[in-house]
Each structure stands twice: as structure tokens, then as C-alpha cells.
Specification:
Elements lengths: L1 E8 L6 H9 L5 E9 L5 H11 L3 E6 L4 H11 L5 E5 L4 E2 L3 H10 L6 E10 L5 E4 L10 H6 L9 E3 H14 L7 H12 L1 E13 L16 H16 L7 H13 L5 H12 L4 H9 L11 H9 L4
Parallel strand pairs: 1-2, 1-4, 2-3, 6-9
Antiparallel strand pairs: 4-8, 5-9, 6-7, 6-8
Helix pairs in contact: 6-7, 6-9, 9-10, 11-12
Length: about 325
């Protein structure tokens, strides 16, 4: 079984070698690694060039910095043909059976557009275990909850070629107007027209450090101090997100244009609601105070309300 792993790198010199070695140690599969470097200025490219000499199955694309969403988008659009694909971050540690386990689960599915997502072991910067990221019975079944706040990590995702081709349709429909993260795109498309397999077991050590701390822990389990840190982090993120405003609406319109006749009426109505909340003043006010999608919120309600208030979606 051949699997093509897509990785985007940016100034990842600190942990990159450990991640690549863990990918090289995968059992039961033949791995290819396609890396797109997003304009690194540290030793990342030097490390990647050295690994290209060591492993013939590593291909490297060197490009200018466009950010992680755009970088993964380009990987998806440019990736060579293969039967199975996976995403990788630059700073995790994969267990040897990660890909083999995922593909076995995918092959048990009767749907040809199947996405496998797994749990994660959260570890500190030195690789020491902290906690399991998601509960064993965690299910994110609704496409709206995925679009508003996805809790499944792209670095755990493994999928077949049929799902890849479907997501390419959405990327082409959006053009270059959206910088939505790849994990949201793949999960929501699989929820609409395919199949999602959640594995409560963890085959990846998710390294917690300053750049990703808010993704590793469920909000409800945080201490008051952690919640305060999260609020400050989100506020800083909000101030820096002017260029990404409206991405959700753009994405939802693309979903309707491509899949309107393949989704349920409930999904259609909810997705259309997201595309129309900015159409007039009444819709905008209702989206803040009487939002019909409240039942699908996975992040704190105040955070969602702020995003609707400032028209971030």
C-alpha cells in the first residue's frame, strides 16, 4: 500500500528531523513525502535537502510564504496521483503503525470517499505525555459544527483518492479567495457526501508549544487562568485576521454551488443560512442574538457571537 504524505513547513528546524524520521518508520506501507516549504528563513530547507539525499521518496517544493492554509491548498492541487493520502505537520511524532491502521479502517468502509481521523497524545516540547486530546466517544457529526469550529486535526487525517478529487472541486470553485484550513475542507466534504471514521486511539504525539497551545485542550477542561490566556490569544488572532474575513461565506457558497443536489435539506438550509447572514441588517442582528445554528457551536458561545458581530464568517 502506497501513501503520499503532504507536509507544509515554515521555520520548523527545531522538531522537523524527528517528524521525518517518524514518517520514515511507518510499517506496512510504502511512503512518499511531498513537502512544500512556505518561505522558511531558518535551517528548515537545509534539513529538507539533507533528507532528500538520504531518502529518495521525499520531494520538495520551495515557494514564497502564503501561510499554512494556502500552502496546504497548493499541495492538494499539485499532488501526484496515489491511492491514499495523509497530511502531516512539521513538529509531531508519528507512531509506526499510524498509516497502516488508518488505511485498514478506510478499506473496511463501503464508501469510496472516506476520511479517517484519529485521536492525539498531547506531549510537551520535550515529548513528555500530557493528556489525550479528545474523549474516546467524541463525535463531530454535523457539517456546521465543523465549519464553525473543527476539533479534528488535519495531521491525523488519512483519506482516499476519491475524497481528494472532491475537495479539489471546492478549491477550484473558490479560486484564490479563501484561506480556510485544509482540515475543515476535507472533513466537511466527507460529512456531506462521504464517510468519516473517528478512531479514539492515538497514533500521533501532538507537541504542544507556544504556536499551537489553544488547539490541544478542550475549553471546558481549562482552568480560569488557561481560559484567560485563551481569550487573549483569540483576541490577538482576531486583530490579525482582517484578511480572512468572509472565508466561511465564500466556502459555504462553493459547497452549495458544487454539492447542492447531493446534500440533505437540513445541511442545505444551514449552509445557506451562513451565506446569507450578512445580506441585510435583520439577518445580521438575528445571527448574533437568535442564531438558528447555536446547537452546533463547539467553541464558547461568546466567541461565536463576536465572530458574527464582527462579520468574521
Amino acid at each position: 500500500m502506497e501513501v503520499l504524505v503532504m507536509m507544509s513547513t515554515y521555520n520548523g528546524e527545531k522538531y522537523l528531523e524527528e517528524q521525518i524520521e517518524s514518517i520514515a518508520s511507518q510499517t506496512g506501507v510504502t511512503v512518499k513525502l511531498l513537502v512544500r516549504d512556505d518561505g522558511s528563513t531558518d535551517r528548515t530547507l537545509e534539513i529538507l535537502h539533507n533528507y532528500q539525499k538520504k531518502y529518495s521518496w521525499i520531494d520538495l517544493i520551495e515557494e514564497e510564504n502564503i501561510g499554512a492554509p494556502g500552502s496546504f491548498r497548493q499541495l492538494v492541487l499539485d499532488v501526484p496521483k496515489c491511492k491514499y493520502y495523509a497530511f502531516s505537520d512539521q513538529d509531531d511524532i508519528w507512531h509506526p503503525q499510524k498509516l497502516e491502521t488508518a488505511i485498514k479502517r478506510i478499506n473496511q468502509s463501503s464508501n469510496s470517499r472516506t476520511l479517517y481521523v484519529g485521536n492525539q497524545n498531547c506531549v510537551d516540547a520535550e515529548g513528555r505525555f500530557l493528556n489525550r486530546r479528545l474523549p474516546d466517544h467524541f463525535l463531530q457529526e454535523n457539517v456546521i459544527s465543523t465549519i464553525i469550529q473543527n476539533d479534528y486535526s488535519g495531521c491525523t487525517m488519512v483519506f482516499d483518492d476519491c475524497l481528494l478529487e472532491e475537495v479539489k472541486k471546492i478549491y477550484r470553485e473558490m479560486g484564490h479567495h479563501s484561506s480556510l484550513m485544509h482540515d475543515i475542507c476535507f472533513l466537511s466534504v466527507a460529512q456531506l457526501i462521504g464517510n468519516v471514521i473517528y478512531d479514539p486511539d492515538a497514533y500521533i504525539d501532538f507537541r504542544r508549544h507556544g504556536d499551537n497551545f489553544s488547539e490541544a485542550e478542550q475549553y471546558m477542561n481549562m482552568s480560569i487562568r488557561k481560559k484567560a490566556e485563551l481569550f487573549k490569544h483569540k483576541w490577538r488572532t482576531f486583530k490579525n485576521r482582517k484578511s480572512t474575513r468572509g472565508n466561511i461565506c465564500i466556502y459555504c457558497k462553493a459547497l452549495l454551488n458544487v454539492y447542492a443536489n447531493r446534500m440533505s435539506k437540513n445541511d442545505y438550509d444551514n449552509i445557506q443560512y451562513l451565506t446569507e447572514y450578512k445580506n441585510n441588517l435583520l439577518n445580521w442582528i438575528a445571527s448574533i442574538f437568535k442564531n438558528r445554528l447555536k446547537q452546533y457551536y463547539r467553541e464558547p458561545k461568546w466567541n461565536v457571537m463576536l465572530k458574527f458581530f464582527f462579520r468574521m464568517y
